[in-house]
Design a protein that fits this description.
The chain is α+β, with helices and mostly antiparallel strands. About 40% of the residues lie in helices and about 25% in strands. It is built from two helices and two strands; from the N terminus they run E-E-H-H. Strands 1-2 form a two-stranded antiparallel sheet.
């Protein structure tokens, strides 16, 4: 049977401009690797969920904003 002895992870954030940023990473070896990994991943999950729940700012050029403000019918 396989016994976990270590782990590695990387959390990468990508924004609307397709810029990538490594926000956290970890490499660990030890007999408590599984317990430590689960604890850290659960913490990271909360951080990621909080970040994703924040609405992103709309990036729009002035010409498109003018058109958006003047439109009277929705195409949906």
């Amino acid at each position: 049977m396989h016994k976990l002895c270590g782990y590695s992870y990387v959390v990468v954030h990508i924004n609307c401009l397709l810029n990538y940023e490594i926000t956290s990473y970890d490499l660990y070896r030890g007999s408590d690797a599984l317990k430590r990994f689960v604890t850290i991943i659960e913490e990271k999950l909360l951080t990621i969920q909080k970040d994703l729940s924040t609405p992103a700012e709309i990036i729009i050029v002035p010409r498109d904003l003018k058109e958006y403000n003047e439109i009277t019918e929705c195409w949906i």
